[in-house]
Amino acid sequence: MKKTRYIEEQIAFALKQAETGTRLGEICRKMGICEATFYNWKKKFGVMIGRSPTASER
Fold first, then answer.
1. CA-to-CA distance for 37 and 8, rounded, in angstroms?
2. Is the pLDDT of residue 47 over 80?
3. Which SUPFAM superfamilies does the annotation name (predicted)?
4. Which of 7, 17, 40, 41 could form a disulfide with 22 if both were Cys (CB 3.0 to 4.6 A apart)?
């Protein structure tokens, strides 16, 4: 399995920033990721940080 560059705490921090209203472009620029990576993280880790699952995730 490929080792990730970011630990789960960094990913959770980025997702929480987005929830508090920080612009997505700003978050991605600071972390050095593209928006697609952010959305993949949101899909994979969003439920883990306390977000309620959407209808398609249930």
1. 14
2. no
3. Homeodomain-like
4. 17
